[in-house]
C-alpha cells in the first residue's frame, strides 16, 4: 500500500493550504459530534494514512444520492468531494465510458483488493434474473456481488440501497431488493434518506476514512451520530405542536403562521434523521420549514404506509404530552367532529413499534 | 470494418443506464439501436394509491429532474380537481422549477458534455490544453466552479422547496411556502451572485448580449468564457453538422402562468403550429412492453418478461401524428421563437442543441430575476381542493431535457391509471411499427467511427447533445 498517497498528500496536490486543512479537520470533528481533542487525531490520521479507495456503483436508482453528495455544503466540500475522497470509480462522474469504464472498475478492484470501500447507490432488482437493470450487458446484481467480494466495507447510500425505496413500492414490479439482503458477508452501513443529507454523507465517509472503522450504528445499521434523534425532537415548529396549534388546511392562516404540520400528515414524530438540525442545501431549510410535513424518507417502508398525507393518529411516547388531537382540542377548542381522521391503522402500528423499539435501546 | 456492429455502453456521465448498438459500414454508422436497460415500474406502483401520493412518488423517478416530475404531478392533480393555482403560486412554482432547469443546464454542460473534449484523441488541437484544465472530470477548474455556483443557486430551493432533490413544496394549488419579504431579498441576492458567476465565467460577458445574438454566425463569433471555448471547439470539430436531427420540434410550454407560458407551447416542423396531443400515441412494437399502442390516457405498462427478440428496449416510442419529435432546450427556444434558436434549427446538430442550452441558461436567469422581483409576500400562494372520487387530469411541463407529461385517471378515489411520457422517452425512443427510428437513432446515422475506436467520440458527442435522462425515459 506504500505507493498510495495519504489524504494530506492528495489535498496538498490540489493546492489546499495547511490552514484550510486544519479548519477542515476541526469542522469535521464538530460535524461528527467529536470534541476538540479529536482535531489533532483527525489531522494525524489524514497525514499518515494512505487514503482509502472508494468505488461507487449505481443500481436501480434515480441518482439523487449523487446529486445530494456533489452539492455537499461543507466549507471545503468541493475539495472533499472532488479530490480528497478520490472516488476511484464512479460511473456518473468519471471520464471513461463503455469498455474502458468496465476495465477501470476491474483494475480498481484488483489494485485495492480487500482495502476499498464500496459505496452503493440504488439496489438490485431480482425479478427475471435481474434483467430490469443491466450494466455492461450483465445484471447489476452481478456487478454488485463482484465488487462486494473484495470490499472492506459497504456503504448503502440512501433509501434505495438501505431499504428498497419507492421502486420497491407495492407491487414491487422488479423485486427491488436492498443491498443487505443480497450481500450477507460484509459489514454494511446504512445511510438512509431520499436522498441522505449531503453533510451526513460526507460525515460518514470522512469518519470511515479517518478512523478506518465504521461509526457506531443503531439497531437498523444506521450511524447513530446522525440518526439517533427524531425530526420532531429538534423541530423548530415543536412549540406549536406542544401548544396544540396546527395547520388544518394548506391555505389557512395557520399555515402562514408556521404552525405544526402534524395534522397535514407530518411523519416527523416517528422519523429518525438530522434534517431539523443539519438541514438541507447548505443549511438553508428542510421540508417542514418549507411548509410541508416530513414524509419519513429515512425510515424503512416509508413509501407504503397508506398515503403520505395520512396522519399519525396517536403518538404516545411523549410522557407529559397528551395525544396531539386532545392537546389541539383543548387549546384551540376544536370540536371533535371537525377534524377528519384518516388513519391507516397498520401504518400507525408500524410507526409506533419503531418508536418503542427505539426507547428500549 | 464494413458491416460490423459495435455495442457502446454503459455510458457514463449520463443519468441512468444506456446502451447503443451501432451497425457500421465503411467507417460510418449505418443504423443505431438505442436500449434503455433499466426498468422500475413506477406506473404500476402508482395504481391503487391515493392520487396525492403521486406528488411524493413521481419525483423519485429521477434525482436530477425531480422538480419537473413534481410539477407535472401537481398539474395533473390540479386538472383533475379543476383547480387553478393562484398567480403568485404559479410564479413561485415557476421560479422553483426554473432553478432546477438552470442547474441542470449547468450540470450538463460542465459535467456531462464538455469532458469528452479532454480525451487524448483530441491531443494536439489548439484548444485541448485549455479544455483539459477546465473540464477534466472531478478536477477541472470550470467543473469545480460550476458545482459550487450550482450549490449556491440551489439555496433558493432550500428556502422555497425545503430540500432538493425531491421537494414536496409543489402542490396542485400552488406552493406550500409563502415567501416573506426577507425571503425575497435572499432570493434576489442569490440570483445576483449567480448572474455574476455566469457573466464572469460561463459567458464572460453580459447575458443580455448573448440573448441578443440572432444567428449562428454571430454566435460563433462569441469568444469569451467557457461558452467561447465550446464555440471554438465546435468550429474546429464541425459540431454543427454532427448528429443532425429531423427538424421537428415539440414543446409543452415551460412555466405555465395564468393563460400562457414563459416559453411558449407548440410544435415546429418547418413552421409553427399549435400543440394538439389528440394524435399522440406510444408505440410498443419494438419495446419490451405488452398491449396495444395507445394514447397515454389509454395506455398501460405491462413489461414483457420474455424480452421478445423483435424488441430491444424498455422504452416506449411516443409519436405525434405518427412522427418522431425532438424535445429539449433547442425545441423550446425554437417553438418560443427566439431568432438564434430558429437559425440554429436549420443545422439541428450537436452545436445547435448545446448552444440552445446556453441561450436558455441566460434567458432563464433573466426570467428568474423577473419572477423574484415580482414576489408579493402579501399574496395567496396556495389553494386547496378535494381530490375527486373520479376524474382525469393531464400535467404538461417542460423539464430541462424537454416535454414531460403525466396522464392521470382517478376511479373511486384511487389512481386507476398513471402514464408518464418523459423527454428522453421522445428523444431516445426505439423504432415504431413503420420502422421509423427514434430521434437519437436517426441522428446517429452517418457519424464517423474511426478504426479501433470502441467508444467513438462522435457518438459520445451526439448522445450527450440530447442531455439524456435515462431514469426518466423508462420509469
Question: Could you describe the 3D structure shown?
Answer:
The complex is a heterodimer of chains A (361) and B (475). Chain A has 2 domains: 7-226, NADH:ubiquinone oxidoreductase-like, 20kDa subunit (Rossmann fold, 3-Layer(aba) Sandwich); 232-360, Cytochrome-c3 hydrogenase, C-terminal domain (Cytochrome-c3 Hydrogenase, Chain A, domain 2, Irregular), CATH 4.10.480.10. Chain A contains 14 helices and 7 strands. Chain A has a 5-stranded parallel sheet with strand order 2-1-3-6-7, sandwiched between helices. A two-stranded antiparallel ribbon of chain A has the order 4-5. In chain A, helix 8 links the parallel strand 6 and strand 7 (188-191). Chain A is α/β, with parallel strands linked by helices and 361 residues long. In chain A, helix 1 (7-13) packs across helix 5 (77-84), helix 2 packs across helix 3 and helix 4 (64-70) crosses helix 9 (198-211). Mean pLDDT of chain A is 77; it is low at 73-86 and 316-361. Helix content of chain A is 36%, strand content 8%. The relative contact order of chain B is 0.20. The longest helix of chain B has 27 residues, at 87-113. Chain B has one domain (4-473): Orthogonal Bundle (Cytochrome-c3 Hydrogenase, chain B). Chain B is α+β, with helices and mostly antiparallel strands. Chain B is globular, with a radius of gyration of 21 Å. Chain B has a 3-stranded antiparallel sheet with strand order 1-2-3. The model of chain B has no long low-confidence stretch (mean pLDDT 94). Chains A and B meet through helix 4, helix 5, helix 6 and strand 4 of A and helix 1, helix 2, helix 6, helix 7 and strand 5 of B.
Summarize the structure.
The complex is a heterodimer of chains A (361) and B (475). Chain A is of the alpha/beta class.
Keywords:
heterodimer; A: 361 residues; Rossmann fold; Cytochrome-c3 Hydrogenase, Chain A, domain 2; two-stranded antiparallel ribbon; 14 helices; 7 strands; 36% helix; 8% strand; B: 475 residues; alpha+beta; Cytochrome-c3 Hydrogenase, chain B; 3-stranded antiparallel β-sheet; 18 helices; globular
